[in-house]
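User: Can you recover a sequence for this backbone? Please restate the input before giving your answer.

Assistant: Of course. Working from this structure:
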């Protein structure tokens, strides 16, 4: 598993290669309407977009940044290549990490995000799913992640933080939640503990 270190926003730490990712999120989402459960149908719960990977794990849409390409341009290009959608709204950089694998190779990882309406987010999922049916793609689907913790249950966000995903992706999730204040501080601390228990090495945060 990669050893990861948090970087100042936009810095690459002289890494060998660079990756950039993009997620879309809605702070006023009502995702449980999709399940039609009477107790939660109208619950407002911030929700963001993730990718079901072909290796069975979870991550963000994105990938390698080309030589001479900016991190933002790389994230937008990769998002288009993987989803078929050219996102043309403003995005902001959420977090940056330096990842070092067992062979000593380094890669910087950067997450961009944009806030959109829940209706826009649902429409995106439909478009992305249609694109995946038409094109050969490394993605196996999309995942709308509701930032929800059910008391006394391991479902919701705790389940996500225990699912297979690159350590940098998990760190990006936590930074995204903190940046937009999608969850209460004590819930963020709980998710941090859940995630850290699955990491063999701690993240260095200067």
């Amino acid at each position: 598993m990669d050893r990861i270190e948090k970087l100042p926003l936009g810095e690459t730490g002289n890494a060998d290669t660079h990756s950039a990712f993009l997620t879309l999120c809605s702070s006023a989402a009502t995702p449980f309407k999709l399940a039609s459960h009477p107790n939660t149908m109208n619950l407002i719960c911030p929700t963001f977009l993730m990718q079901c990977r072909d290796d069975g794990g979870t991550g963000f849409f994105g990938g390698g940044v080309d030589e001479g390409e900016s991190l933002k341009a790389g994230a937008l290009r990769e998002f288009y290549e993987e989803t078929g959608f050219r996102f043309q709204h403003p995005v902001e950089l959420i977090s940056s990490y330096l990842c070092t694998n067992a062979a000593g190779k380094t890669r910087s990882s950067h997450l961009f995000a944009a806030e959109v309406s829940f209706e826009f987010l649902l429409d995106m999922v439909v478009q992305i799913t249609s694109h995946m049916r038409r094109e050969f793609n490394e993605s196996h689907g999309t995942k709308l992640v509701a930032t929800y913790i059910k008391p006394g249950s391991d479902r919701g966000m705790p389940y996500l933080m225990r699912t297979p995903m690159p350590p940098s992706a998990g760190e990006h999730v936590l930074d995204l939640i903190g940046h937009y204040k999608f969850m209460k501080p004590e819930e963020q601390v709980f998710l941090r503990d859940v995630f850290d228990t699955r990491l063999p090495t701690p993240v260095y945060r200067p």
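That completes the design. Residues 57 and 142 are 12 Å apart (CA to CA).
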